[in-house]
């Protein structure tokens, strides 16, 4: 079989997203002493390039050390079961899964049939028990939240409230992805240097009669609350019909594969591995209405088997009204964290679009004041609607009077901002790539003008700017023209919707800006 490496302890965590009840029996979540002793090795997909940022957040909020995977866009950390709800509140992670077992140096056979047979045989040898207990705990917590939401919907205050995209576990993702510019997760392996990157595949039957490709970031709506029909980790068939109430679980396998030394495709790996899972547990394969999503991540010689704990990416948490280029909330968090916001800082997003950056900023750094603006009235309207949705969501969480958010949104011209010279501490924005909005040609004039105006409003000596763009050549040229007011301090390379982009941290020089504008 050729498995290598030392598997870490495996278990899981809690799912804090709401989801529809599948009508199955209650999950037999671990309780008492068992829960207290249960630990989980969690895998998290994060925006590519911000792995270190995510690891720092995990250490600060959970006290756990993280290991950054060789496969870009993933980190791993261990937490006790009692900390699982906090894991779901991390701001920098997209999707979460509990690690069943990890092989750091798995030796694949050169022959395709032998390599796939080894993957099939692996299923029987994996330590499924604790990860499935965690999955059950995950479902039990989802059910509690579902009940709370049902109760809230009956109250007059919340009647007619639109659902918050990214918080609803049962959201229609196909529509969401159509609206988002950044729908592709950065964990998708990048094809570089002869490396072959493939997207995950689902398996629908033992014979693999029909397979379906899924985007790397997609976590389709899952029916929650299913009871593990067999005792966790039991052999196939045990406990399936013990009391006549247990239901057969529905599952699918998703495979992510990257590397040029594999004799098989991700499609074939998902098919054969999924067939073995079906035979081992006697679960029923279902591509869409599945209860369990088994993950098979293969990156060169690194193999990680896991069970998904999120139904849709956590980056959709703040946005209900999408634009043509909506930024992921997790990437917005990474950008904001890069500029190290301090209490009382005034933070401006002069090209806010749907407001992902200022909304994330107001949620995580409420001691700062956030100003959002855009020249497009439709974008300003979407941002205002997203802010309203966030306020309503906060209201529903707290029955006391809502305090609002330290955030304003308005329409303006990026080259003539209605802000005093030197009055802003931080500028954070997603600049036009010149693809869906604007053009590369327009960027040659727009970028220098933007950097000059940002330099004018920022405090000399202490001001910072964090700017995201895919038009790196144009940005470098523009920055060279304003070198007297901006110095590049750091560059983070990121994957945005499959595009190779960069996040630049700039620091304002002490040089005073020339304000040719009339004073008001």
Low-confidence stretches: 1-28, 153-244
What's the total helix number?
A: 12
Instruction: Give me the CATH architecture of the domain at 329-396 and 403-508, please.
Output: 3-Layer(aba) Sandwich
Largest pleated sheet: 9 strands, mixed
Nearest-angstrom radius of gyration?
24 Å
Cα distance spanning the termini: 75 Å
Mind explaining what this structure looks like?
The chain is α/β, with parallel strands linked by helices. The protein has a domain at 329-396 and 403-508: Vaccinia Virus protein VP39 (Rossmann fold, 3-Layer(aba) Sandwich), CATH 3.40.50. Helix content is 29%, strand content 21%. The chain contains twelve helices and 18 strands. The protein has helices spanning 32-37, 51-62, 84-87, 112-125, 129-153, 173-179, 266-281, 329-338, 356-364, 377-397, 440-457, 472-481; strands at residues 39-45, 66-68, 74-80, 95-103, 197-198, 201-203, 211-213, 250-258, 284-285, 292-299, 302-308, 346-349, 369-374, 407-411, 426-430, 464-469, 486-496, 499-508. Strands 1, 2, 3, 4, 5, 8, 9, 10 and 11 form a nine-stranded mixed beta sheet that branches. Helix 4 packs parallel to helix 7, helix 8 (329-338) packs across helix 9 (356-364) and helix 11 crosses helix 12. The longest helix is centred in the N-terminal third of the chain and has 25 residues, at 129-153. The radius of gyration is 24 Å and the shape is elongated. The relative contact order is 0.13. One of its GO terms (biological process) is tRNA methylation. Residues 10-28, 183-195, 224-238 have a biased composition (Low complexity). Pfam families: THUMP, UPF0020.
